Amino acid sequence: MKTRRLCAVIAAAATLLGGMAFGTAGAYAAGSASIEVRHSQKGHTYSAYKFASLTVDGDAVQVDTDADWVTAVTDAVAAANNNMDPVVSMPSEYDSNPAAFAATKTGDNDAAWFRTFAASLAVGDGVVADKTVAGNGGTAAIGSLEEGWYLITDVDKDGGRGTNAIVATTLNGVAATFKVKGDPATGQGKINAVGMFVAKNENEPDQPGKTADTITTTEGVSIGQTVAYTITLDIPNAAEGYDKYPYFVKDVASKGLTVNKDFKAVVRAADGTETNMPFTYVTVPTVGADGKTTTVLEFDLANKSGQLVITYTAVVNKDIIDMGNKVTNKAAVSRDTEVWNTPVEFDSYTGGFSFHKYGVGSDANGLAGAKFHVFEGTEVSQTPLKFIKIVDGEYRLAEANENGAVADVETTTGDVKIMGLKSGKYTLKETGFASGYAKNFVPIFTVELAVNQETGKSTFKLVGANNLGLASRLDEGMSDKAIQVKNVKNVTQLPLTGAMGTALFTIAALVMAGAGLALVLRFRESDTPMAV
């Protein structure tokens, strides 16, 4: 059946189909036409089945339904007609050539009809594809085709079927007389040339990236610390072709994190420029019965390209101790909230150190009653850190304004363990002394803590100033062995080794010098000459 200006008819049809478009015209030999599959997916096979011939004849195009496809095309037309409200019917003159009737569906209101037609057109038993091509993750070409109208099927490696596409090849001699505008409702919005379409059966979305601020990444976390998280994902290439492209991001934070409702998003272009990206909360940060906090965001990425970058903050809370000193944060993406890809996980650890307080005599194995303040950094400041006592001798860093928080760290056994700290240096000063012990020989020492962010293990060592050498450890390197802290009752009990022996010698020298000076002054006050 000849149809005048069928090129315009099929061009209009391309605006209605989920994947119908045409290639550029030229002097093509038989079997030299091709169809491009844009955004093809690896592991997918695209098969082309010609169901109608398109033959240029002057200013008209001859449309002939292939004999083996008359029944299949008729059934697809009937399905599309029955899906209309009101139901329509195909005139009897098209009974032997139903493809020609399909080519008449060019109106602005025919989009739904053509989508149903494409979805309903089925490959009959025993029908062999004219050509196939394997998806490569980019543009794949189905070549060496006869000019005509094709059904393109999309089957993945597991046999799953994607959305059918109805695609016309080049029409030699007339293709340059019209332009194609793809249907954005089905992902073809960027199609503006003949002989191509965008594959709609997308692969599972790529796994997003999940990072945290530099301090968290390198030093770990302390209780009360605010962590800045970033989720990044590459916007699928297919999004550019849609007028609507819903995309969902789910964030799940473990117990031990208090997630703030301060999510922000931008689209980052290839040149680094960023534009704000609106979104809606499908689920605001919500704590479940298991203590995990779930947040779900919905984006419309239509006509977007580049990277989607999402940022938000969370505060580390006391429950991190119950979680084995570890908090976990996971992010996943989905097109429909039904099927989520494998989430990416970001873990952070908190840590701590321990020391053993001992005295002299019967207290040599452990000294009760001493109290310490802990300061962040290498200086004794006016504001010590505050802690919550877990059990005797065990303390964790307190949350901000937490009830029961104290600055004094003490024990009845001599063993002290301090938890909930990130890597860094901490200075300890004794502020309360056991009965009978000297108050003028004050232990002040600095501990360097390292919390391994791969294993969570804490190691520490003494660094910097160590007043009178009262803090010590046999191994001077990083380890998890408790630091030994001594209290004394008199100067003779101060450590005698190394620099501390020098310190004791200095004290003795100062005492002797003071005594000598006193004698000199005494004799100067006397009229009696000093005997030589």
Quick synopsis:
It contains 6 helices and 31 strands.
DSSP E strands, number = 31
Q: State the low-pLDDT regions, or none.
A: 2-28, 175-182, 188-193
Integer count of domains: 4
| Largest sheet descriptor | 6 strands, antiparallel
Which structural class fits the helix and strand makeup? Answer: mainly beta
Count of DSSP H/I helices: 6
Task: Describe the fold and architecture.
The protein is mostly beta strands. The chain folds into four domains: 2-198, no CATH class; 209-348, Immunoglobulin-like; 351-495, Immunoglobulin-like (Sandwich); 502-532. 13% of the residues lie in helices and 36% in strands. It is built from six helices and 31 strands. It has helices at residues 6-14, 70-82, 98-102, 111-120, 214-219, 498-525; strands at residues 2-4, 33-38, 44-57, 60-65, 131-134, 140-145, 148-156, 165-168, 196-198, 209-212, 226-234, 246-253, 257-259, 264-268, 274-276, 280-287, 293-300, 307-316, 326-334, 344-349, 351-358, 371-376, 387-391, 394-397, 409-410, 415-421, 424-432, 444-451, 458-466, 471-472, 483-486. Strands 1, 3, 4, 5, 7 and 8 form a six-stranded antiparallel sheet that branches. Strands 10, 11, 13, 14, 15 and 18 form a six-stranded antiparallel sheet that branches. The protein has a six-stranded mixed sheet with strand order 23-24-26-21-31-30, with no helix packed on it. Helix 2 (70-82) packs across helix 4. The longest helix has 28 residues, at 498-525. The model is unreliable at 2-28, 175-182 and 188-193 (pLDDT under 50).
